[in-house]
Specification:
single chain; 141 residues; alpha+beta; OB fold (Dihydrolipoamide Acetyltransferase, E2P); 2 domains; five-stranded mixed barrel; 6 strands; 26% helix
């Protein structure tokens, strides 16, 4: 009986670890974004969530003048990475601020989200890069 409990416990731990690894690997994929397209859009901040594993910014805007503004969700990297990229802080923007974002849209038509590459605060003209790879020095990998 004791051996059965040890075997069952070991299997349960293995299953939990394997499930966590699969979930984490799937979560961090950027395959859903179309890197061949880059969109620039102006809009108003609805919310910024400064949390791990990804900071997200919800914007009310439209990529074209003929479309009515709608809410778009911009995904970025982690708070730590944004801080290292330069200038980002949790209080950098607040609801109602007007910003301009450059992002890669999602591949699936009709989705209103993207991978943020750069944000510009229109009241100050300050630009905040969001792609940590652009900031790295060549040859560090």
């Amino acid at each position: 009986m004791r051996q059965l409990l040890k075997t069952t416990g070991a299997f349960a731990v293995f299953a939990l670890v394997a499930t966590g690894i699969t979930g984490a690997a799937a979560h961090h994929s950027a395959a859903m974004f179309d890197f061949s397209k880059k969109i620039t859009m102006k809009g108003k901040v609805v919310e910024m969530r400064w949390v791990n594993p990804h900071v997200t910014i919800t914007i009310n805007g439209s990529p074209t003048p003929d479309e009515a503004p709608t809410e778009w969700l911009m995904e970025t990297t982690s708070p730590g990475n944004l801080t290292r990229v330069g200038g980002w802080r949790r209080d950098i923007i607040k609801p109602g601020d007007e910003i301009e974002v450059t992002f890669h849209p999602e591949r699936e038509a009709g989705k209103k989200d993207g991978l943020l590459r750069e944000m510009k605060l229109l009241s100050t003209g300050e630009v905040f890069p969001a792609n940590i790879r652009d900031q790295e020095k060549p040859g560090l990998e």
